[in-house]
Amino acid sequence: MKTATAMVTSLAVLSLTTVPALAAAYKYQVNGNNAYASFYQYDDCSYTDVYVSAFDNLTKSAPGAPTTQEGASLSYSTYNYCNGTYSYGYGFSDTADVTISNSLQSASLTGTFTLYDYYSGTSKTADVNLTWAGTGNTYRSNSVSHYQGPGYLSNYRSKSTSRDATVTGTVTIDGTNVISGLSSYAAISSSNSGSLNIYKPN
Length: 202
What we know:
Elements: H1 2-17, E1 24-42, E2 46-60, E3 67-80, E4 86-93, E5 97-100, E6 106-117, E7 123-149, E8 152-173, E9 176-177, E10 183-199
Antiparallel strand pairs: 1-2, 1-10, 2-3, 3-4, 4-6, 5-6, 6-7, 7-8, 8-9, 8-10
């Protein structure tokens, strides 16, 4: 009886020590629409660049319903080569009103941003009111990637559709429409992407 008990105990200990460590898996999915616009001006003495980006996405990283994410970012930079003055500001808003059609025919953004100027260390207020109108053909792209290493596995896939757009409206910073008279380039896009990362202890 003692011998049998010892054998059972030994087998139990052996089974516990040979159980493999569980792998950890992280999954993330994004499905949504985006619109962006770049306004710019260059001459012999200075340049101005204003960039606006807006998104309306559904994200999912855990069981249950996806999460809605909506927001926009604004960056503004100027540099005068002749007198050496420089300004760069950036702001983000998650309360801006963003509307982007699934057909990529139109988009709109209305919101107020607080821009922090990294050069002067001061904050400015910006009001954005922009409308996009899709033009021309749509372009589609697909991408897939796979990476694997010791204790690590990563898979990523993405499908996107985009089209050029015209953009009109105002970006007003401290009472001045800073995009007045600037050249512009704009686009509207949609994307569906997902990633799966697996980590396994050695």
